[in-house]
Every structure is written in structure tokens, then in C-alpha cells.
Queue: 4 jobs
Job 1
Amino acid sequence: MKNAGHTPTTKFESLNVAATQEQSELLDVEEKSTLVMRRVWRFVDGTPTAIESSVFPQWLIGELPRLASPEVIQKGTTAWLDENGYPMTIHQDYISARPHTKPEKQFFESSPGVVSIVRRRVSFETLKDNKRGRPLRVMDTVYRSDMNEIVYDITDHKSKPEK
């Protein structure tokens, strides 16, 4: 953003929330158990562009209490978790589009017809054998459809066929 001449800014908050049924299934915790949510409201040149909400299970908060603090982790939680023994290189992404919720509509102040693009990412602990471990985070990123484009690079990791 800065290289393109734009000014990105954020507003951050941390709070305790009750696990929804879907979050409890994805994180393998009890429904309505307490999760820590770290939420970032993202702006470009003062215009609201995205909301990113990550929830973490209590067992991980017990291991790394800083996750529950209201402070911003400057290098980002993914890098910080890796440095603290919880690498997350295995993810499942779910992409959907829907009308804005009422709070999103108020935040985005977008034109009629603009919808929310939602990326839900479930991040898993990466074990030493590069296998998927416990779920560590469910992150929902809500984007304004008129200001964002999602681009993925796909790499084929299949081994070469035998001759």
C-alpha cells in the first residue's frame, strides 16, 4: 500500500467471546466456551476496507497469554506464534460472499450493491513431520467487494509419476 502511495491504518481490539457452534467444531472446543478474539479494522487512505477477526482457544492463551492482551503484535500473530513454538503453515480457506451485516454496513459505508467477501481461514499447528496438528486459529476476514480482489497462487505438490 505504501509503495503504491496509499496510507494504510488500523484500529485494533481484543476481547473474550463465546465460541459459536461452527467455531467450536473448527477449533475442537466446547460450544460457548470462551475464546479470545483479536480484531483489526483496516483502512486505506481513511476509507474502511476490511475487518479481520481471529479467535484462539483458551489452551493456547494459557500457553501464550500475550495473545489475550490488547496490544498490537507488530510482526503479526502468525510470525509471533511461529517464534513461540506454534508454526502455522497449514490452512484451510473458505471463501464466500454475502450482504453486509448491519455492523459491516455501518463500518464500510459502501454504496448499494456492494457486498462482503468473506475468507474464513482455519490455521493448524504444523508438526515437525510437516503434518497437520491441532487447530490454533479461526480467522474471518471481511472485505468490501468494490475495493478488494483475492488472488491465489496454486502450486502442485504432487510427486512426479513413476516411469
Note: Helices lie at 21-27, 58-63, 77-83, 102-108.
Job 2
Amino acid sequence: MSSGSAIGNGGGQDAAVPGSGSSGSGSGVSIDGAPGSPSDGGRGDDGGPALDGSVATGCPLGAILCEDFEKYLLGTTNLTPDWLTYTYGGGTLQVDTTKAHAGTKSLHLTTPVGGRKYADIIRQNPPDKELLPLRHYGRVMVWVTALPSVAHWNINQAGGPLAANPNLIGKYSYGGQNGVLSPNYTQRAPVGDGLMPLRGGGPENGDPNAALVDCGPNAATQKLVTNQWVCWEWMFDGQTNQQHLFLDGKEQTEAAVTGVPGTCGGWQGPKAFTKIIVGWEQYTQPSDKPQEAFLDDLVVSNQRVGCPP
């Protein structure tokens, strides 16, 4: 691996997932190693995402993954065996009590001014083992103190090998660029040691930059509000090539990708989502300001999770 810092087990997409557990509730993360086919529950009649945004607290019944950061000691930077942690370019990550949406703790992330900067938690499986259903929903409470003026930034991502070419990785993400929200889809060949290294979704310095597909239609006006808690919800569907984002229960229609031909040229969903990345990332253009973000109450499910009270 290059100069990024990774804490956990292994350094590539083929590394085994540390600490796989059974589904359940409570603090920390729990992932069922074989989630199975996604349920149709919670979706609209047209097969799109549910629009009711039913309220959920704690770890909802049927959730695939839950994390509230309460079980970790103050100042924890190593979240194994539940998560692999990854920082690069001066990014920092720790569990602390500076700001929490619920309980007393959250994940506190910082990145400095400049180019490629990352602070992520990661869960990944071998390329032949599904981690998340091809159609899944997520929610995380987000507090961001500022946004870069131009740089591309991300909050959540999921990816895996393409069915047509397992040596290419298809990745979905949600974040923003140029001050507005932006979905993003990329296809990228593995880099480094021939595997997909344990890292965030963007390149490190010295990596080949050319993505075979890189589609990110920026929203016209919709953006993330700073200096308050925001309920950040998403839906990724690798079967119908769709992405949807909801902020505080309201769909951000300008940031939707609907699978219509031409919306995102060359789009192919992965054969399985084998990796999830949650955190703060900035790249493409240097950020003009230091970033600080807090994450809390993360849930991933096969149906819409909704926002906590």
C-alpha cells in the first residue's frame, strides 16, 4: 500500500472481513455474511425507493448493519474487528464526545486544506462474497462544519466487481462537488498489488487517474446544509442502475440517477456489493478549507430506514 494509513486485517479487496457477526441490535456493527435477496418491502409501486421514510430508532428489525459508536472507548481510532479504518493525506478519525446525535459519542473526522484527503471506515468482503444486497438502503446522521467550494467530496460509497469483468470495480457514491450535491458512478481497474487496496473511493497520489467510466451529474441547486445534523439517506440499486438520495426525509431529485439510457454512460452495476465506505473524502480539486464532519446512527437495510426523531 502507499502512504495511506489502514488499521485492520489485510490490504485488498480479497482480504477477509474482520469480525463478521450475526444480525442483531445494539451498539457496534453487525453484518450477516449472506444477506440474501433484497426484499421488495418499502419500495414504491414502480420499483423505486419508498417515499414514506418511516421513522426508525436504534437498530431497526431486519437491518443488515447498525453502528452508533457508543461501545467504543473515548478517543478510539482503531474500530476493529467491526470496521477497518483508513486515513490519507493528513485525515484523522476518532470516536469522541465532541458532538453526538444520540447517546454521547459519534465518529469525528477531519481533513486539512489541500488535495486528496480521506478519513473513512470500511467493511469489505472477498470479491466472490456479497456484503450488501444489490438493492439496499442506508442512513447516517451527518454534521459538516463547512463544504469545499470546488473539490469533490463523498459521505457514502459501495462497490464491487462487475459481472462482465470481475477485474473491474463498479462503485456508487453520494457526496457533492462545486458546492452542490452529486451522485457518482465509476468503473476503475484495480491498482497497487493487483487487488483493490483497502482505501477510500478516490485515488491516492501516484495512482493511475483514468477511470474507464466516471459519471457525476451535479445537482443544479440542491446542497448539504452545514452546522446542523442532517439525516442522510440513500438507495443504491445495482440491478436497475439507480441511485437516490434523501436529506431529512426529502428526496433530492436533482441528485437522482434513474437508470435511463444516457443518464450515466457505460453504467454497469456490480455483480455484488462487496465493500462499503462511510466517512469524509475530498479529491479531484484541492479543498480550499479544512473540513470537519461527525457521523452517527448508521443503518443499512434492504428497505428504507427513515430518519430518527
Note: The chain is about 0% helix and 35% strand.
Job 3
Amino acid sequence: MNHVTSILSPVAALVLSPLLLGIINRTKAVCAGRCGQPLMQAYWELWKLLHKGAVTSYTTTWIFRAGPMISLAATLTAALLMPFANFDAPIHFAGDFVLFAYLLGLGRFFTVLAALDTGSAFEGMGASREVFFSTMVEPALLLSIAAIAREAIGNSILVDLTAMHHHISGPLWANAGLILIFIAVALFIVMLAECSRIPIDDPNTHLELTMIHEVMVLDHGGPDLAFILYGSAIKMWLLGTLIAGLLLPVTNWLLLDVFLSLTLLFLMAVLVGVVESVMARLRMVRVPQLLAGATTLAILALVLEYRIP
């Protein structure tokens, strides 16, 4: 039965992840006093892009076309490692969190290669910024997951994301609530950075000089752009699921776990929309300070774990 239900975790990511984008956009519209677009708008946009053609420059090579597909494939593979609610991940083994982090990094790497393949100065600038900021995001992500593992499982070397997820409990929150809050805040900042959201980046900007991720995908269109947008939505779902698994102890009630996990994921999307409504994108020189703050929170959580029995 576990093998059958475990597939529901990636299926939920595949089906529901674009809904997070709809909730974010609707929240921003409500904060601005507008009705906003339908919650299902992201699905219609993906469907429209998949039925369009793609225009490819003669200066590009196969890397430009392969970049979005490999990036999406890496993200979908990462979804197989992430548990959800009371469901185990379809694939889990000791140290799978390292593979999870670097599958996300692999997707980013090929997005950067595709941007560089165009030969555009603007896309090269965006690729440079993306690589620089990613070197600060990855330590925060890995240290946060390591802190979860240390707090939930102790010194055991048999660490995987599913085991971490099932060891989060009410007594653990009672004993180390502050540590888990530090980790959750660090992961939330990582999610904003990985998904190119304000205050790290602005997914709706049209000024190339201030773009990071968006400037890298300017030459992509049609199905290629759909793959990029879909991959970004799935990445947000996976990182949000990681935070939800940290904040919500697993119970023996399957439907309750699913309901609470979905509710928390949608509330996180609302929080992202509120953040994007009440503050502007940070100046480029301030972004490393925020990412360094996330890494510092993860390190502080690890230090407290070793200091507090």
C-alpha cells in the first residue's frame, strides 16, 4: 500500500503546483484593490504556450533547446524524493537530500547554459547574477536540511527526507521550537530566491538591467517557456512542502494531514503575495546580505542543536 500511495506525492506536485502561482497573483491583486486574474490562469497560460511554436535564433545550438527540458526533468526527478503530508516519497534513501539539492542546482545550471548559448549580453548578465546568488542559496538550503536531520533524527547517518518528515512531532516542537522556526525562516528565504520572487527578483519586471532569472529566458517561447514556468511552479511546491513538513507534525489521520499540508502550502502562497505587495525588490547589493542571513539562521540552528541537549 505504501508503494501505491507514495506516488501521490509527485502527482500532487504535478497537478497542484501551478495553483500556487494563481494564489500569489490573486493575493497581489487583492492587496492592490483589484479583482485579479482567475486562480486557474497559470494552467491556461501553460496550455496556451504548449500549443504555440518556438522561434529559435540561428546563433544558438542544441543547448538552448535542451536547457528548459533538462531543467524541468531535473525538477520532476526532485519531486520523486519529496514526501507530502502522510505520503512517503516514491524514492528515498540515505543522503537523498543531497541529491534533491543538486537536482535543483542541475536545473539551474542548464538554464544558465541556455542563456549563455544565445550570445546575448543581457542574458549573460542575468546568468552571471544567477550563478553568483545560487552559490549563496545552496549553503542555506543544505545547512537547513542538515539542521532538520540533526534535530529530528540525531546523529544517525541513515538520513533521508522521508525519515526527517516522519520524525517531526509535537514533542519535538515543544523541545526545540525556536530552532525549527529559524530553519523555517531560512527555508522561506531560500524559496523566494530559488523561485525568483520579490525581494530577491521580480518575475514581472521588464527592465533588463534589474532582471536576474527573467532576463535569462527572454529568448524562450512556446513550449520551452512553458517548461520553464512549470518547473518554477513545481520548485516552489517542493520547497513549500519541505517547509510544511517542518511546521506540521505528521498524525495518524491521512485526510487531516493532507488537508493541513495543502492549507499551509496555500497560506505560504498568500504570504508570498503579501510580501510582494508590501515591499519592493531589494537593491542588487543587498540581496547577498539577505541570503547570508538565511545561511546564518541555518548555522545558528545547528549550533543551538549541539548546545541544547
Note: The CA atoms of residues 96 and 186 lie 20 Å apart.
Job 4
Amino acid sequence: MRTLPRKFTAVLTVIGSLAVFVAAFALIVRYLSLTNHLLVVVAAAYPFLVCGAVLAMVLFAVLRRWLVTIVAAVLAATMIAVELPWYIASTVPEANTVRVRVMSSNLRMGTANPASLVSTATLNADVLAVQELPIGLARELHGLDATFPYRALAPRDSAEGVGIWSRYPIEQPRHFYSDEMALTSVLVHVPGVTAATTVVTAHLPGPFPKPVSDWRNGMDRLSKSLRDYASVAGKGAIIVAGDLNATNDMSEFRGLLRDGYRDAAEQAGAGIQFTFPADSAVPPVVAIDHILTFQAAATSVRTARVPISDHVALIADVALASG
């Protein structure tokens, strides 16, 4: 085999070494508490930084440096393996279930197109959960009333505005606000389901560019709220839909997925659902919108565009126990 020029070999070695370092750093960060913006960015970019390990494996193979090629290959395999569960359906709903469709949409402080939101929700949802709902837009969405006659809205002219529309009767609406975090919950009476289903919409503060501590506090509050909902749910299901400003590669987010809570995309094997930003020519690159389930089984998850919003909507089909 012809020997590569020394300068070319040196360049490939440097690139390969940097790629391995960045990929290994990303894998480590995935299991760290995120305390600064650098760690947040690295965790958010994890699905793409996997490519660094693959690139390093190829480069070192070209250089015939087999030991580091094996190291890069093991690193790449490990990084891919931790994401695989999101692409393998892990639940099979029981026969005696009722399906409910839940749609979550961030309305970008009310700039999302009302007509498009109404038509998308009418075609795809039984329950619509929205975030960043200002007072003015809440008044404009009367087109939802024909399909979703029940609602619990807490609009605000800030990022904390949230709301829930439902085809089915609701009761006990509750609203919570704190430091740019907003929660609204209702009990939904789905026909054919004995126990009422708790539906929650949430909007958490982002970790960037504001202090990461605000985001961490929001995650802690949401975790406590999820435990509280579960403690009073009895046999009823819980569905949490919203802009959580966190990806599945952030350890703080995965901390929510305990005590019976599951991410619908992972549960259904739908893979990582990139939802933001959705207002540019390139596809969304981070998965910060989520639908979580408790005592329920998500069977499919998909996205839908709502023009002018900077998030794509997230839609999940969820099976609820009928007994």
C-alpha cells in the first residue's frame, strides 16, 4: 500500500484525535449534572457528536493505526448504543385500551398561525396542549371551540402562558407559575376509560442564554410536580406535554423518567424527535419538546409544522387502560 505524505498523515492524526476527544467528552457529559452553558450545548449536540467517533474510526483506519481505530470503534458503538432504546418500541398495549391523541405545540409568544394550529389540531388531536400562549391569541383561537369544547387556559403576555383544549369533558383545572415556569393540569374524562386521565402542559425556562441554575430549578420543580401527580392519580394515567427545554441526552431530563414515567418517543420507538428551531431553512436540530406518560403506553409519536412558530408540534397516540 502506498504511504501517505507525512504532512497529510499529521493532519489526519490531529483531526482524528480531536474527533475522539470531542466524542468522548460528549459521552461523559451525557452523565454529568449540567452546571454551565458549555455542558448544556455539548449535551444538546450529542446525537451529532457521535459522528466524531465514527470519523475518527475511519481516519485512523486509513492511517492503519489499528489500536486507536479499535478505541474509536468502541467509543462509536457505545455512543450509538445509549441512543438505540429510543428507536425500539418497548411496550405493547393491552387489548382493552382506548386510544387518545395528544398534541403539544409551542406558539412562539403567539406568532404561530392560528388557522394552521386549528386545522392541525382538529385533524390530529383529541387533546391539545400549548405553551407561550398570550392573551390576544387565546381570544383568536375560537376556531378550536367546535372540535374542542372543553378548555383550561392560563394565557399570559409572556413565555408562561399555557393552555389545554379537549374534545372530552375536563375538571379540576390547576395553574402554577414560578420563575418563567408554567404548569396547567386538568382531569380529562375519556369515553371508555374508567379512571380520569391527568393531562399536564408545561413550559420550563431554557438553560441558554439565561443562568443554567434557573433551568435546573425548573427541572427540580417539575420532578416534584410529577411525583405529586403520580401520588394522587390512583389507577388513572398521566400525560405531560410541553416545551421542557431539555433533550434526552441531558441527565436532568432523564431524571424525570423514573417512578413509572416514560418519554412517549422512547416508549413508541419513534426515535429522537427534533423540534427546534423550526423557523429556518434547515431542519430542527434539538429535541426539547416532549410528551411523557405514566400508567399509559404511547404507540406512535410524530411531528407537524405550525407555520411561523419556532417549534414543530409533537403528536402522540397514547393507549389508556379501559378498565
Note: The chain has two domains: 6-82, 91-321.
